[in-house]
């Protein structure tokens, strides 16, 4: 890495230290954790955009799939609910999958014509009604058991870290389906199809209460081996250790937990980064760039462009899924209502573009910098608004309105940053080599 | 009698809402398809520009209302519409001048322009929230119903009623006027013809002396009219909330692709297909079948295919079906 690039990361570090000094160390550590997760998401999008030039705006959906993976993997199973309708629900879903598979088979194997269309219609519509007939009673039974605290099937009770892998796999599966449909067509079609799948995934997560309690959220996700703040605060060894540093137990425990998370995240980021860099330098990476830069030429050289696009799309989505699972683990609760496209899709895009598309280090830097701005623009905007409106009388409508809406400054700022970078420095802070 | 009741029920809960929602989508999808046809990129800021234009209309409506201006039974917002259109046109022309024109000049890849439209989306969204905030706003006034369900029942003696809201009537008639005027413009006027020529074959159009910047400007002006009208009608019919307008992006794009991107007639047809399926798939048909079927066959459940929360999934599924089986759309759109 050149001196210039190193200095970017140093400046970033100084900024974070400044936050620790001016606001509080705990805030700074929280910021670092979110920056690390953002960096992983940006890496995922960079794999799609930087490596292969695929424009996907479904990041939110893949992140949310990662989130639900934590629930499905590591919450304890709710035995009553399983007894009430667990097997029936699974059987119902299998029927749904079988109907789709049969539909695909019919479409592929039968001669084109009215007979095929009719058979296809019967299979799909009949399959849908059968699927609902089997699934619906199971759903009612599951949601009826112990609704206040459970009302869902629970998870597999595995350690939380396993869910990070499951999150990646779930996202990869969804990406396979959507890629199969929309890759090989015009480049914008992928964008619109992924916009759709993201909204659909969120709708499913919000409404299928039997799966993950829907908008009633899942609290208290396990996080072993990382300890809880409360248990640290009642541990005499920890209190003694904290006082040796001159910290109050509450602050020390919060810092300690955040540091544990940060260390794990750094390991994951390191592994993904190492793999991405290896892939970038490998013949596979060269082929990807060749496809990105001149699809026609690559196709003429015998490369299967659509297949390679599908591959890279799945890989990038899986990375986003892993990051989503990490995010939910950090929060300790799964809230499908909190997934907003501006925050989970378009902000990640700003990170990649600003950092430098096609450069993994750039994506990481973008993740850090943009998340930092996203959080810190609000206090800065408030301060700026206060300064602008200072000459206005205390009770003026304009003044209170401007102060109230300072919170919305962040969208405006992000948009302006994106537009300016795209226009004047389209290669980003750390350009592709 | 039962048959009539079933029909009226369907009309009240499916047809009328779907046609008015479809009209709003059609205006939006027309804008998307025009930008795609002329400027050749997917305009992701469409939903937020729609929210911005509606916001301008709302602010002017409030000002008119505070002056006591009213055109009862019609909503005051109709008076404010021209002002909103002018403001939106200024915004779109300003954005084109400061953002898109550069990419046109360097002949950037379409995907880069799409990315720029993401930036525009952020900025416009931020502006809207800065001025009016992210919350629901109510600006509808005037009479609510042309005739209510009860009026209809009393007049016809049927068990089921059919209500028609003013907002629905206005939506449908305004859409007819706007779409009619647009097609007249595209097919009959010199400028409209030059726009279609430009959309069909840019190089040939340039050779025949068509001024591209003028075509682009006219396109943005038309888009301003379309989005502001669509947004205002949607706001009158349902309610105004910036985030809802952003979410309309998916059904609008689905409608445009369903009809064939770049094909105005297709966009209108696609919008009605999307709206009808969205409302039809999420409607509980139980009562409808109770009227039609003999008592022994009456359904047990709600007869609802999907819960209403899945309405975005409907446009998504239709989109996927089109991409799978007919990527050029139902009507022939531009190349895939």
TrEMBL record, chain B:
Keyword Repeat: no
Family from the record: Belongs to the binding-protein-dependent transport system permease family. LivHM subfamily.
The UniProt record lists the keyword Nuclease: no
GO BP, one annotated term: L-isoleucine import across plasma membrane
Membrane topology: Multi-pass membrane protein
Domain of life from the UniProt record: Bacteria
Protein name (database record): Branched-chain amino acid ABC transporter permease
Keyword tags: Amino-acid transport, Cell inner membrane, Cell membrane, Membrane, Transmembrane, Transmembrane helix, Transport
CDD domains reported for this sequence: TM_PBP1_LivH_like
Record's GO cellular component terms: plasma membrane
Subcellular location, record wording: Cell membrane
Pfam families in the record: BPD_transp_2
Species per Swiss-Prot/TrEMBL record: Pararhodobacter aggregans
InterPro entries assigned to the protein according to its UniProt record, in alphabetical order: ABC_transp_permease, BCAA_transport_permease
GO terms of molecular function: L-isoleucine transmembrane transporter activity; L-leucine transmembrane transporter activity; L-phenylalanine transmembrane transporter activity; L-valine transmembrane transporter activity
Transmembrane segments: 6-39, 51-71, 77-96, 108-132, 166-186, 215-236, 305-325
């Amino acid at each position: 890495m050149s001196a210039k690039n190193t200095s970017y990361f140093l400046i970033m570090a100084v900024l974070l230290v400044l936050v620790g000094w001016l606001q509080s160390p705990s805030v700074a550590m929280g910021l670092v954790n979110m920056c690390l997760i953002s960096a992983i998401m940006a890496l995922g999008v960079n794999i799609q955009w930087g490596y292969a030039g695929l424009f996907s705006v479904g990041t939110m959906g893949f992140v949310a799939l990662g989130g639900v993976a934590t629930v499905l993997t590591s919450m304890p199973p709710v035995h009553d609910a399983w007894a009430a309708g667990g097997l029936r629900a699974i059987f119902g879903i299998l029927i749904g999958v079988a109907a789709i598979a049969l539909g695909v088979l019919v479409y592929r194997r039968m001669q084109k014509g009215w007979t095929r269309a009719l058979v296809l219609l019967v299979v799909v519509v009949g399959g849908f009604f059968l699927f609902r007939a089997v699934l619906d009673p199971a759903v009612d039974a599951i949601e009826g058991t112990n609704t206040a605290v459970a009302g869902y099937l629970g998870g597999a009770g595995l350690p939380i870290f396993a869910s990070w892998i499951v999150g990646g796999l779930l996202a990869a599966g969804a990406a396979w389906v959507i890629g199969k449909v929309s890759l090989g067509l015009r480049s914008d079609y992928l964008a619109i199809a992924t916009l759709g799948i993201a909204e659909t995934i969120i709708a499913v997560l919000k409404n299928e209460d039997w799966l993950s309690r829907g908008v009633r959220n899942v609290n208290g996700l396990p996080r072993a081996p990382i300890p809880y703040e409360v248990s640290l605060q009642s541990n005499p060894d920890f209190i003694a250790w904290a006082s040796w540093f001159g910290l109050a137990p509450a602050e020390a425990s919060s810092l300690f937990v955040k540091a544990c998370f940060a260390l794990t995240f750094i390991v994951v980021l390191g592994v993904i980064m190492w793999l991405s860099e290896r892939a970038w330098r490998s013949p596979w990476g060269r082929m990807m760039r060749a496809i990105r830069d001149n699809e026609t030429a690559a196709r003429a050289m015998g490369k299967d462009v659509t297949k390679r696009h599908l591959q890279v799309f799945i890989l990038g989505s899986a990375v986003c899924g892993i990051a989503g699972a990490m995010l939910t683990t950090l929060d300790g609760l799964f809230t499908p209502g909190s997934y907003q496209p501006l925050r989970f899709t378009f902000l990640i895009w700003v990170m990649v573009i600003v950092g430098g598309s096609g450069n993994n280090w750039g994506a990481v830097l973008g993740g850090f910098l943009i998340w930092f701005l996203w959080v810190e623009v609000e206090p800065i905007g408030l301060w700026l608004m206060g300064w602008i409106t200072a000459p206005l009388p205390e009770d003026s409508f304009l003044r209170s309105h401007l102060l109230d809406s300072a919170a919305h400054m962040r969208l405006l700022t992000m948009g302006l940053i994106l537009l300016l970078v795209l226009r004047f420095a389209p290669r980003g802070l750390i350009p592709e080599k | 009698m039962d048959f009539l009741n079933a029909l009226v029920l369907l009309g009240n809960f499916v047809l009328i809402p779907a046609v008015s929602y479809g009209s709003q989508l059609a205006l939006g999808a027309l804008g998307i398809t025009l930008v795609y046809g002329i400027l050749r990129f997917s305009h992701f800021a469409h939903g937020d520009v729609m929210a911005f234009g509606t916001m301008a209309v709302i602010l002017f409506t409030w000002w008119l209302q505070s002056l006591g201006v009213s055109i009862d039974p019609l909503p005051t917002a109709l008076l404010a519409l021209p002002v909103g259109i002018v403001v939106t046109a200024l915004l779109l022309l300003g954005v084109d001048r400061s953002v898109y024109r550069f990419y046109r000049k360097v002949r950037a890849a379409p995907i880069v322009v799409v990315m720029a439209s993401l930036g525009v989306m952020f900025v416009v969204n931020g502006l809207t929230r800065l001025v009016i905030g992210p919350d629901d706003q109510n600006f509808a006034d005037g009479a609510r119903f042309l005739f209510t369900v009860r009026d209809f029942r009393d007049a016809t003696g049927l068990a089921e009623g059919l209500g028609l809201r003013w907002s629905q009537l206005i939506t449908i008639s305004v859409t007819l006027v706007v779409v009619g005027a647009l097609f007249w413009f595209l097919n009959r006027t010199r400028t409209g013809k030059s726009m279609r020529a430009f959309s069909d074959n840019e190089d040939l159009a340039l050779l025949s002396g068509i001024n591209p910047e003028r075509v682009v400007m006219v396109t943005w002006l038309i888009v301003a009219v379309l989005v502001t009208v669509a947004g205002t009608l949607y706001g009158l019919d349902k309610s105004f909330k910036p985030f809802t307008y952003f979410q309309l992006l998916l059904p609008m794009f689905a409608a445009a692709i369903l009809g064939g991107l770049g094909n105005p007639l297709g966009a209108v047809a696609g919008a009605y297909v999307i709206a009808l399926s969205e409302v039809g798939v999420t409607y509980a048909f139980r009562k409808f079948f109770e009227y039609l079927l003999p008592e022994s066959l009456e359904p047990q459940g709600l007869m609802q295919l999907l819960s209403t929360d899945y309405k975005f999934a409907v446009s998504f599924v239709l989109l996927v079906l089109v991409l799978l089986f007919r990527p050029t759309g139902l009507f022939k759109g531009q190349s895939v």
